[in-house]
Amino acid sequence: MAATDLQTMNIAKSIVDVRAAVAAARGAGKKIGLVPTMGALHEGHLSLMRAAREECDYLVVSIFVNPTQFSPHEDLDRYPRPIEEDLRGCGDEGVDLVFHPDVATIYPAGDQTIVEAVELSTIVEGAHRPGHFRGVTTVVLKLLNIVAPDVAYFGRKDYQQQLIIRQMCRDLALPVEIATCPTIREADGLALSSRNRYLSESERETALSLSQCLQFACDRVAAGETDLTALRQEMVQRMQQTPGVELDYATIVDAETLSEDAQPTARLVALIAARVGTTRLIDNMVIEPTDSL
Ligand SMILES: Nc1ncnc2c1ncn2[C@@H]1O[C@H](COP(=O)(O)OP(=O)(O)OP(=O)(O)O)[C@@H](O)[C@H]1O
Ligand SMILES: CC(C)(CO)[C@@H](O)C(=O)[O-]
Ligand code: BAL
């Protein structure tokens, strides 16, 4: 495919421009898809765009590094922003409109409204990143209100995030379908993530311990392990014994409630977050119930 000429890309910075473009597409009978991102695009993001292209006739991608989902000590300032490369990637995927707003467009002076799924936002990942999911739900609600898509696409790589967004849409009766797409991994199992580009070669090797720990847990459940408390302890021990890794959490929980009070026969999800060097990574694997348990 020919590389995209940036001059021909349809890029909107303002809410009015997005609404006008989407209204025209809707007026022409098109089904609207939205893929929200923070940029630094990789194959994981592209897989969401391809899923959206399959099902929708007009594809909007937002690129916005949302400051309210970062705590003061986190990596907002160093978060990668390769915007020209990202725009070319969107063009090559046939994106119809890129919404790339400034912070003041999303958070105008005097802005004071937040939205939060109060229970799901404070457990597991939320317990380690206080305020993070409040920032996510607030910005996603704004993006959904601005674009008004028929379907919005999220990755399973951010498992808790997609669960919380589904909860928000249900609770607020938002007229949008949420689609969750599978996690895209490197051949050796590393989940693609924009933050992988912070990793040195040896840190990248060390980072494989996350997906390996999740796979270990999945294999144990598939082999008939029913003592989830013991299995959680084994996951934590494995990670604590891995040099170069500082573990935040490794756990197996109910895939819908994220509660550790889970039946081994339920649909489960193994979740992990750890720092490799200065880079914090998350990953997860869903464990579907089997008849053999
Ligand atoms: N490996 C992946 N497979 C599928 N979807 C993904 C993957 N990585 C990210 N996504 C999805 O892409 C969307 C945008 O995510 P985001 O821009 O934060 O990228 P990211 O790689 O998760 O970045 P970060 O390193 O900040 O976690 C989210 O819905 C996210 O779940
Ligand atoms: C959903 C999102 C774009 C909101 O800023 C972000 O959390 C992300 O990229 O996963
Ligand atoms: N994909 C989640 C974005 C974040 O870590 O802020």
Automatic annotation (TrEMBL):
Active site per the UniProt annotation: H45 (proton donor)
- Annotated binding of ATP, by residue: 38-45, 155-158, 184, 192-195
Q: Please provide the Gene Ontology terms (biological process) for this protein.
A: pantothenate biosynthetic process
The enzyme's main class, written as a single word, is ligase
Q: Which Pfam families match?
A: Pantoate_ligase (PF02569)
Enzyme Commission number(s) of this protein: 6.3.2.1
- UniProt GO MF annotations: ATP binding; pantoate-beta-alanine ligase activity
Q: Where, if anywhere, are coiled coils annotated?
A: none
How does this polypeptide assemble, per the annotation?
Answer: Homodimer.
Give the note: The reaction proceeds by a bi uni uni bi ping pong mechanism.
Name of this protein: Pantothenate synthetase
